[in-house]
Amino acid sequence: MRLRHIEVFHAVYAHGSISTAARTLNVSQPSVSKVLKHAEDQLGFRLFRRVKGRLAPTDEAHALFREVKEVFERLDSLKQAARNLRLGEGGHIRAAVLPALGLGVAPDAVARFRAKHPTVTFDFRTLHYEEVLRSLYEHEVDMALAYDSIQHPRVTSFQIGAGELMMMFPRGEFGDDPPARLDLQSLENRNYIGSGATGPVSDIFSAEVEGRGLIINEPITVSTFYMAASLVRQGVGVAVVDEFTARAEASDAIDFRPLEPALPFGVFCMHLEDRPLSHLSERFVKEMQAVLQEIREG
Questions:
Q1: What domain count does the chain have?
Q2: 161 class by beta-carbon count within 10 Å (0-12 exposed, 13-18 middle, 19+ buried)
């Protein structure tokens, strides 16, 4: 039986009348009769007989209706799922973020979004910058949120926020009242916790150091900014990290300041050109934008 056969059979069985079934389906009576006749021809047995002017289901129809009822319940579930997706009341979001954005920005955005849309589920991954393209290509995630965009013909990107590099240091490292901004030259006589990670933020810092000819003592190199922050907390040295890591890790033991001159970077959302974001994902990206803005203003 085709879906149209099932739909007509269900309506005629439920209402016991071709005319009522036709009104329910918003089609003509001849159309219902034609589809019902075609269904019987396909099945090889009668579904209804006329008894005192009414259509009476055959034994075969009774047995078939039990199966058809399950199909209709599944169809109703499908329609409800589609409605939820349209209204943002259900669905699944698969996204990748840099470890730095996984500290506070992404969890905050997910919590806010789930508060508004409690039936939405998430699959979040933290990836280093060089892993983002592979993850998109292999359809492990539908979108990636990172600093700067990947320049690739199959990748579409748009900016959702901005930040700047910050110096993190143990409180008291620059006195009780540190200046509003710190010059990178102040690193030359301190132990610097370097980041061996590749990516736009690290590239911005390296280019500035090289351009100014600074000589920095770097006894420790780590792969993530949050590990650098943990070492700063232990009093091992100072580190230059992205703004969002600095704000998330600030505490009674750690302080931070922006650099002079400012070293800004962008926050971008990326997805494959032939796999545009769903309406649900677009709403989540807007939540991320709001969180990024509030953190900077806060």
A1: 3
A2: buried
Last residue of a domain, one of 87, 114, 135: 87
CATH number at residue 77: 1.10.10.10
What would the pLDDT profile of 250-296 be if each residue is shown by its tens digit?
999 999 999 999 999 999 999 999 999 988 899 999 999 999 999 99
Query: What's the chain's Rg over C-alpha atoms?
Result: 31
In a domain, residue 150? The reply is no
The Cα–Cα gap between 39 and 228 comes to 70
What are the angstrom distances between the C-alpha of 87 and each of 80, 143, 249? 10, 20, 36
User: For 184-225, what is each residue's pLDDT tens digit?
Assistant: 999 998 999 997 666 788 889 999 999 999 999 999 999 888
87, 102, 133: which is the final residue of a domain?
A: 87
In a domain, 156, yes or no: no
Straight-line distance from the first to the last Cα atom of the chain, in angstroms, rounded to the nearest whole number: 61
Peptide bond between residue 30 and the one before it cis (omega within 30 degrees of 0): no
The whole-angstrom separation of Cα 135 and Cα 141 is 6
Residue 12 sits in which domain range?
Answer: 3-87
pTM of the predicted protein model: 0.69
